[in-house]
Amino acid sequence: MPYFDTASAAPLHPVARQALLAALDEGWADPARLYREGRRARLLLDAAREAAAEAVGCRPDELVFTSSGTTAVHAGIAGALSGRRRVGRHLALSAVEHSSVLHSAAAHEAAGGSFTEVPVERSGAVDPAAYAGALRADTALACLQSANHEVGTEQPVAEVSALCAEAGVPLLVDAAQSLGWGPVAGRWSLLTASAHKWGGPAGVGLLAVRKGVRFAPQGPAGERESGRAPGFENLPAIVAAAASLRAVRDEAAAEAVRLRALVGRIRSVVAERVGDVEVVGDPERRLPHLVTFSCLYVDGETLLHELDRHGFSVSSGSSCTSSTLEPSHVLKAMGVLSEGNVRVSLPMGTAGADVDRFLDVLPGVVAEVRERLGAPVSAPPSPAPVASLVVDALGRRCPIPVIELAKVIGEVPVGATVTVLADDEAARLDIPAWCEMREQEYVGEEPADRGSAYVVRRLS
């Protein structure tokens, strides 16, 4: 069964498994103790730190191991903000950061701080000039991911880090998705990552803080990991994480070329065979293994279940698949279609035959889901068009509001409008996206007794 969701968690690398088993036998003792077993554990921990630091591009004494990538993000942001509290309490971040960064920003604001979200272009990348415009005299910290976890777009970290350095603002880079493919370029100040993204065991994160960066660890003080990650180190997992990072880096150059070609095939073939689909993210400046596309008139949850039934494990940013019933904040910030969203992220070693089979199965699955939902095959004009129409889609989830719009747009004359009443948050994103795909005019959103009224003018 092909597993195509390595952006969530990569399969355990064989080297990680071997290192984990060996460290369970050799690294069980307390590395802080001076007796024989403790010294042996300390040697393993020091070797793992040196290997991880080499991969990150920092000094070993600048890097600590945490219990997860999320913990590393929270500790890094809190420590940097506290260390620079005399400068100010403003935080800058992109609108497409991982939820761990957004949660840290929300907690900072609740404690009396402030933050600015820098918007992104439709590709998902920030404009360095726009990011520089968000930096203020009281900005204590800036955050920018190296590559987006949902659409794969690489961020201009080198350019932004130079602008941050010029402004005297430290930059924290969340490198969870990219570190397995190579070091992060630029003059970053703090960096975080998560081992299960590159084939290491879950429960190991990295936090690197450059020398000279003001940093004050938050919470009760600890004696381990320079006081930045309290608690007993999970030494076997740390050893496995460092070993697997070195192993995937050795394979990265060749695999990047091969997987980039497979992802390029997915990008082109999906657009050719599926129809009414938007492939999102930067087509060139992207991670080699990840592609995301959204299908009109498709329920994302149903689509994922059907693909799973055919043996393919993929993920989605559609609101239909989330517990919040809201579209992905990443897709929302990009202004792209969210319904029927599919993220494919290929593990190292993915066979081309598995990708071909996925591309053979996908069009039929999408067509079946669309037929089940009553999606229009086309929108033929009515022989007696009316001046305007109101579609009541209140209480109905994505993609039904867009489907109902598509069914009736041909019943109004060119220049007339269709108003869609909807209370599903995804409609705010998907109706404008449908208009752009269908070359119709999105007039705007108006208040309604319930939900919102979305007005669309027919242009053709």
Features:
single chain, 460 residues, alpha/beta, 38% helix
Task: Describe what this molecule looks like in 3D.
By secondary structure, the chain is of the alpha/beta class. The chain is built from 12 helices and 14 strands. The radius of gyration is 24 Å and the shape is globular. The model is unreliable at 379-384 (pLDDT under 50). The strands form 3 sheets. It has a 7-stranded mixed sheet with strand order 1-7-6-5-4-2-3, with helices on both faces. A 4-stranded mixed sheet has the order 11-12-14-13, with helices on one face. Strands 8-9-10 form a 3-stranded antiparallel sheet. β13 (441-447) and β14 form a beta hairpin. It has helices spanning 14-26, 36-56, 69-83, 99-110, 128-134, 157-167, 235-273, 300-309, 329-334, 352-373, 400-408, 427-438, and strands at residues 63-66, 90-94, 114-118, 139-143, 171-174, 190-194, 205-209, 277-280, 290-295, 341-345, 388-392, 417-422, 441-447, 452-457. The longest helix is centred in the middle third of the chain and has 39 residues, at 235-273. α3 runs parallel beside α4 (99-110). It is 38% helix and 16% strand. 51% of the residues are buried. It starts with 13 loop residues before the first helix and ends with a strand.
- By DSSP (H or I, 4+ residues per run), the number of helices equals 12
Task: Please state the CA-atom Rg, rounded to the nearest Å.
Answer: 24 Å
What percentage of residues falls in helices of 4 or more residues? 25-40%
**Major sheet summary line:** 7 strands, mixed
Order of helices and strands: HHEHEHEHEHEEEHEEHHEHEHEHEE
Based on secondary structure, the structural category is alpha/beta
* Average pLDDT: 92
For the secondary structure, the number of strands is: 14
Strand content: 15-25%
- The unreliable regions are 379-384
Spatially, the strands of the biggest sheet line up as 1-7-6-5-4-2-3
Distance between the termini: 44 Å
Please tell me what the overall shape is.
Answer: globular
